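Board notes (copied after class):
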Amino acid sequence: MPNALFGQCPLWPIPNSQFPIPNSQFPIPNSQFPIPNSLFDLMSQIFGQITVEELSQRLAEPATDKLQLVDVREPDEIELVSLPGFAVFPLSEFAEWSTEIADRLDRDTETLVLCHHGMRSAQMCHWLTEQGFINVKNIIGGIDAYSIVVDRTIPRY
């Protein structure tokens, strides 16, 4: 039976059930988010990673126009909370936007991908690298880590 959150996501070659979602019930530093080392190592070999602290610094720089910011959360999640400047590509709508990705994003521009905890964004990063994107980074811990570590005024869900 498909996972209710991910469904049958074509973006990741490994079944979603094998990926634990980080426990967001405890406000722990982003650098200690409980992502298994083997998964972290695998992701790091395929695409880059960026912490929420680094994201905050990058968003504060004047040259943010040189970044592509992608949020893969669902529309109801975006309604709850979002960060400015992120283009929304919900994974559940993959069939609707996947054929247009080359027209909507530049393969050579640094692309930072966000989700709730960092797992769906990892799926998107993997898929983007398969599409020829050369500078893709997963935001470790997602918007939940951002709300814990960077900006506590951002609501958690």
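Comment from the instructor: The helical segments are 37-46, 52-60, 75-80, 94-97, 101-104, 119-130, 142-150. DSSP finds seven helices and five strands in the chain.
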